Description:
Blueprint: E1 10-19, E2 25-28, E3 35-38, H1 46-50, E4 60-65, E5 79-83, E6 98-103, E7 106-116, E8 120-124, E9 134-145
Antiparallel strand pairs: 1-2, 1-3, 1-9, 4-9, 5-8, 6-7, 7-8
Amino acid sequence: MHELLVGEGVQVTLHFSLKLNDGQMIDSNFDGDPATFIFGDGRLLPGFEQVLVGLKEGDRETFVIPPEKGFGENNPGNVHVVGRDTFGEDISIAKGVVVSFAHPSGGELPGVILSFTDDKVTVDFNHPLSGRNITFDIEILSIVPIVKH
């Protein structure tokens, strides 16, 4: 019997952490319940999933995921100026505040307020982690084959 490796046809359970270059922790489950996903199910961004290929149970690795394989590059086209009257009276307008807008396809589109004047608000709709290298630390806890019926 051969040892299972991360790749197509397996379910992976792991601990992970995501950090910025300066060491700031973005997310971690090392002190909590591990995450489980089926390889290729879309729960992980492809750039994060691909670095796991070929790892085995018990492996502990650290990878640096560049923007183009992680949350994307910053796109200046995703920064928009909208009328301040777009916001209801109950919404606090301040630099760094995250606001949600209805997306034309349904769902919500979050944006971060960059600046504002009496009549205009500049909102950045890029992912907050776009343009950033992400340090991805993982420990593979288990790999099991997916049984197809």
